[in-house]
Amino acid sequence: MVDSAARPKRRADAERSIARIVAAARELLSSDPNAKTDDIARAAGVGRMTLYGHFATRAELIDAAFVEALRAGDAVLSSVDLGGNARDAMARLLDSSWQVVAESAALLAAAEEVLPAGRVRELHEEPVRRMTELIRRGQDQGVFRTDMPLDWLVNVVHYILHGAASEVRAGRLAPSRAADVVTRSVQSVLACP
């Protein structure tokens, strides 16, 4: 990614076009990770040349849409009250996390298809940090297990969240049950043996 401070200032109409393209990409890729750039351009109300003038490749467009989705998700997750008992705080975080993951699971699939694994991991640094701190606090409070590596527990939580999203997309888990299934699964994994 190019540092925004190093980029020349764009005209206001170019910024609006970019915003429309990224919003259209987020919307279409969130329902179909294989959405075509032509469809995204059409949904954004711009021509293919305009889209490719701002995003030289489909990967650049997906990166921008994924960054925007994570930014929106972080705004939701950073407002979750993580105070008090870590077990209760985890339930609140999982409920909000599930909503964010459910909305962007297909977009994540598109990102994993075209972006390097390191980029996807880099973009998840803030959610990983938040989860790591909460699990560590739960361990310190004696409500979460300490017999497994912290990084492993964080990854298991993310696997459960993304696995539930895959199950919902495949029709094997009802969306109305997903948040409860995710929370109970994670709580059982984190519980002290």
TrEMBL record:
Signal sequence annotation: none
Pfam family, one: TetR_N
Residues covered by the HTH tetR-type domain: 15-73
UniProt KW Transcription regulation keyword: yes
Keywords: DNA-binding, Transcription, Transcription regulation
Xref: Gene3D superfamilies: Tetracycline Repressor, domain 2
UniProt DNA-binding region: 36-55
Protein known as: AcrR family transcriptional regulator
Organism annotation: Nonomuraea soli
